[in-house]
Queue: 3 jobs
Job 1
Amino acid sequence: MAIHRYSLLLAVCTLFLVVAGASVTSLEAGLSVPDWPLSYGQVMPEMKGGIFYEHGHRMVATTVGFLTIILAVWLWRSDNRAWMRRLGFAALAAVCVQGLLGGLTVLYMLPKPVSISHACLAELFFSLICAIALFTSPSWRNGAQPVDPAGWFARGNRILVLPGAVLLQVALGAAFRHKALPLAWHVGGAALVTAVVVAVSMVLIMEYPRHAALKRAATALVTITLAQVFLGVAAYMSRVATADAPQPMPVMVGFTVAHVALGALTMATSVLTAILVYRHVRRERDSYAPASEMSYAR
Amino acid sequence: MIHRFAALICAAVFVLLAACGGTTETKSSESSGSATAEPPAPAVAPADAATIAGKVTFTGTAPPRRPVSMDATPACARQHDKAVLSEEVVVNDNGTLRNVFVYVKEGLPAGKWPVPDAPVTIDQIGCVYKPHVIGVMVDQDVEFLNNDPTNHNIHPLPRLNREWNESQPPKGEPKLKSFAKPEIGIPVKCNIHPWMRVYINVVEHPFHAVTGEDGSFSIKGLPPGEYTIEAWHERYPAQQIKVKVGPGTTETAEFKFAG
């Protein structure tokens, strides 16, 4: 139970890290510190102007990195599921790669492929930590409440379309943000993702109204996604309205950062929903094996 | 398992470094390298030297100059008694437009024009670049000063020249930089203070000017001939006109930008 709470804490810290990173980009502060891994050759430079945001982002990232090391070791020592132990080290590997990507964006002055990869991996890492929190939760330990298949996604691995579409949209958003693609791609992606989310969520809510976990996940997913669409429009409108301003304006920064943060939540919720569908909805072609294999080494 | 992840990380780093490789250049590559390859441009006798002069007027409604917020950096805010205004579009009292880069785009005889020894200076003072627009020749030094009590980073964003990003401490040593290729409108920004922006225009000859508080310009020492003169502004589309000058004459060129 303690490791579940710890995972939740790490998820919150990671979301804060996403907010810090999004602030750096929105405030155009990414290169206010030209060197890496130190900042102006120091561990702690004077925190002013863009340096506050860039170095602050590095400090939060370092904290999340250390917290992830603890999580990986903790899982390694306490969880008897081999795949969970591997998952802990996968999270550690992801946070290390993410740190290197962040460093490369600074040293090579924001190369688009690296910056876009950095943005996408941030949301994948957040989703991974949320998944670890789910896998270590009491509800997961209590085993599955299997339900009969319903809907198009109950066959094979079709449910992967959900997180896949959200990840594609995250990548399109990052590509727009880093000036690699025009806005039209991101808008088109929003329409696609919204359609997929609504289709999956409606089926889950209508077919399994008494299944608390599936209903909760579907409700959260559709709510967050619709709010995300609203924030996307607000972020764009605020960007247009402040285009003549001599510097990034708080209204634009606020909406854009909220849009990125909610994007991370959308990504994580879509991943968790897919996991819950795998766990609770019987596969049409497979016989279902109850997943009550949990046991913890204390 | 740990070894597998370590190998994965190393592979990712290798791929990324390989993908990013080639963006750095040595100092020598910043030079155009044309000093010996191209013959010098023909000298112009003082009596034959022509001048193209004029002004850049502005019609219509100018966008308001918006105040810059330096609240987040007291070291910057303290240096100003009143609000600093955006310099993107500055219309002078006489209806002319400031910060327009006017230069000879076409028509000069072939050859390499001598590069001035003196650098063009850009000062960072009051967390504002002064001046806001400059013109330099290829390989001519640009001298960056920091007369502020705070750090700045200098970050040009060229399309053709090499990008770089360097910090400069308060009252630090001047930085001398040059650009190897002609390029108009290179924005240079400070990421610490996102309102700071200056534009550097790099041309292959000395025949250029920037409009000031009276909106006028004067390009002197031209050999007789017919030239395409371009006026570049950071916000509005560039304009061109053709001007023919004879030996020792002065011709007028007028540009009109509309809001």
Job 2
Amino acid sequence: MNPEPFFQLDRVIHEKGRLTIMSMLAASPELSFTELRDGLGMTDGNLTTHIRTLQQSGYLSVTKSFQNNRPLTTCAMTAAGRKAFANYINLLEQIIRQNKPE
Amino acid sequence: MESNWAAEHLQVIRTLMERSALYRRALAPIMIFNGVVGMAAAALGWALRIGPPRAFILFWAGVGIVAAVGSFLLVRRQAIKESESFWSPPTRRIMQALLPPLTVGLMVSVVVWARAGSVPRGDGSLAGMLWLPLSWVVLYGCAFHAAGFFMPRGMRLFGWAFIMGGCGLFSAGFPDWARPLDCANGIMGCFFGGLHLAYGVYLYFTERRRNET
């Protein structure tokens, strides 16, 4: 068995919390902080930490605005994030293929 | 072992991607509102004897506008309450899915409305035009079936109920003794009032529980 795909997995995305955030954003052009928090059942602090990590890696862009005088934070996946996420899924598929019995 | 967690990861990704693409606002208030409007309008149309095709089309177009505006306001209120944008990606997708069949319904109504005036005795009776409310029912069902791909699964079944009901009545026809005015308003009341109300009540009791799980 070739272990290489496993070692190529992006560690930033591979963490469970961040993977769920990336998955949600992969299907939507953008999601608000509230939508992500409620959809994933995370605490505000936990979600903020993960978003910051993904943002620092250049995978997410965060926009802060106001809606009806209330702050609105929206997250969207960047082009680099989409590429990294697609690559991550390709590697997972490779791992599954490799381990499939002939 | 390694392929197991990889497959599990892919399954989680797939589930989350589906969930984030779905429209998750509470639909019960919208359905109940539309049901009440539909029932009240059918009763009003019957009581006011709105029988001439042109008047019937205008009356139900007005009801449609009231229902649409009311639904938008309810959605907007939910969005504001949850500090979310009203025009979210799932809302956009749903509007895109709803639009083609509803546009066809509008075009058919405009053409029938225009022709009704030029045909001799065209303003006289709904007798030959019962296919119109049935076509509205079927097209509305098609619209909701299409939107159902971005909503909870029940919405597609709701669309099918309109489609099958409309097609069934269309093929069964109406007995000779049935009065067209009663039939036309009855169709609108049963489908746009009754079905919405029934589904709204069902959602009222199930939606919150489903969202909590």
Job 3
Amino acid sequence: MNILETFNKKLYEPAPASFIGWSRIVILLILLWKFLSRDYSIFGLMPEDLAIAYAGNTFDPLDAYVALGFKPIVDLFTFHWIHAFLPFPTVNMLYYLQLFLEAMLVVTLFFGGGYKKLNYLIIYIVSMYLLGFIFSMGADIDEIFIPMQIVLLLFLFRGKETYILSSNQQNPLNYSKENGWFFSMVLLIFIGYYFLCGFTKVIDISLWDWGRCEVANLVELNKIKIAVGDDRATFFMRDLIVGNSWMDIPGTALIYLEHLMIPLLFFKRRYIAFAWFIYFSFHLTSLSLNLFFTGIFLSWFVFLPVHRFDIKKLNIFKRFKRGDAEASPLLEE
Amino acid sequence: MNWIRPYAILLLCVSIVTVILSFYMMDFMPILYKLYRGVEITPDKMDKLRIFGNILIHDVRIIAMFSSITFAILLFVKNIKQYFLLVAIGLLVHFLFIAEITEYAIFKRVYKLFLMLPLLWIFFDYFKFKKENYEKRITHGFLYLMFVFLIVPGLYAPPFFSGIQGWTIEIDKKEPILIEGVFLVRQDGKEIRYTRGITNPINFLQRIDNFFINKHPDKLEALLTFYENIYIKQYSTLKEGKIPSQVIMGDFSYPTHNPVGAFDYSSFPPSSIKSIKIIRKRYRWNRELIDKEILASKEW
């Protein structure tokens, strides 16, 4: 069997419907938490002629990081092209728009995507519009892109949902190819995100540069900056890193290698927990550099095998119903 | 694969022309400077521009010569298998040697773009979007999109982008430590840091400040007025020792991308502020202040 046949087989490898419900809950909760903790109405205070600090303009073009992050491209994807027809929003307009989004997130959390999953499309458009004020500056990129891609996938998914307050849903323990496709696509979103980051480590820097990342010294520098009045926060994580320069090369190389090898996860899914552990440690360690990728860090929770809880729940229910100590052995698997 | 030969010839010609043009590149540097900064270069900055220009020319020449060799070999490629082999070898040699002796990512990514561009057609041809079912079309569309982002340098279309660079951080402890940011100055002269926590969700204030300082100094006053208005709007939260992201969820709010330290604004009500400034301070590693430069200032 060649790699393409294996890919197609894996793409439809049956998965439990619980994954759809659980990933829906995780992603919507992340977004709800984020929007409840942010005030996008401040952009109503911004004069329109200040809204020019696009990523393509603010980053050094020689770094090529987001060199094509110019207004026409970014506005197209963040729905800010609407300002060509409508005036720049006021504080109140943005406040109510954010409130509407939060309400939509709550409703969708309980009742699902609704007719043709349009709720997810609305959430995607409004979120992208509000986040677009930040995305246009090239910020929040590595923080919330994965959740947003999953929201889009939830809209595109044609199967029934789970864990919603509606009779029109699947049994969480229903294994199907369609559910398997959804699982594979979520996995591909993670793989795409990390692999692209890994590939840049091969193009932008050489193998010898892999050992030129003085994290420990940088952490020490950050510590001094805080002492002289910088606005970074203090973390215990920082003290674990300072002075431990020996961690620089193996730590960086391990992450780069994981980035590059992550496509294998699509074929060897039993290693998801291992990959999760490495990235969990990586994102926690980044706290020492005063960076926290909350959205992506929490998005990994979609892979929590919640169907096992459903199986246990069902077994307990069956035992209770039958008065029988032995539940179906099939369900124990 | 008939089209690969003209493609190779075209890129070979472009690479050779680039090498030739690089000998005249220093003449174009002031023009490039004006295009990027929007202002003519002043004589006191010419030396810096010359040093920078020499690095650019070095990079352009190395990459263009490496491209010439790669695309000369591409002329002899007969099938997809050989092309894949050339891509793999090209990337490996680049990773091991070329990336090491060049500095700027943009030239490396442009080499990757031209080396891998034919793959876009090969994969498009392979996927044959119209013949697939709904799910496969989405999967292949997604993979194709990822591939476009992999190849096109610096492509940025939220929520997709081409990945962050590698980290090559070398700290020279003899160099001064820079602290740059917005400060509020009270009428009695006391100052406090205006943190990114106040403007959250805007996180990278320094990046925005530098953009306006370097490229749109005429809009600096409007920028500082914007910061001022945010401070006035959020002050009721700030005086309680919270940042605006903590209004609803308190200590359990979604963390800011760059966690912010605690600053006490209770004694800095908007009515007591005299001015708002963007300041650059330089310190030694022993925390001794070297100097302080005011980059922008506005009366409150």
